[in-house]
Design a protein that fits this description.
- It is a single chain.
- By secondary structure, this protein is low in regular secondary structure.
- It has one helix and two strands, in the order ββα.
- A two-stranded antiparallel sheet has the order 1-2.
- The chain is globular.
- The mean pLDDT is 97.
């Protein structure tokens, strides 16, 4: 099915054939598409490979990011409130001005992350 990733105003950032949103997001990241300002709130991105992703200002509020690979991801100004980051790998991630209020970070690897 055709999956669309939109920004907070409904503008399409990326679209592709995929089974689900997680697969579409991974395809965008693999193709080095910027997902800045994307609305991924409440998304199931558990176990997703988002390493090196451009996620500036992304809305990941209440997203499921359990066991996600976010190594070296650019999450500056991201909204991660109440996101589930349990066991996520955030080594080297850029978290400057990201909002992590209420985020679940149990067993998350934040080694070298920049805040």
């Amino acid at each position: 099915m055709m999956i669309k990733i939109e920004d907070r105003e409904g503008k399409i950032i990326f679209e592709c054939e995929a089974k689900n949103l997680k697969e579409a997001v991974e395809k965008a990241v693999k193709e080095k598409i910027s997902l800045s300002f994307a609305d991924l709130s409440f998304a199931d991105l558990s176990f997703a490979d988002l390493s090196f992703a451009d996620l500036n200002f992304v809305n990941l509020k209440n997203a499921d990011l359990k066991n996600a690979d976010l190594r070296w991801a650019d999450l500056k100004n991201a909204d991660l409130r109440w996101a589930d980051l349990e066991s996520a790998d955030l080594r080297g991630a850029h978290l400057e001005d990201a909002n992590l209020g209420g985020a679940h970070l149990e067993d998350a690897n934040l080694g070298g992350a920049k805040k």
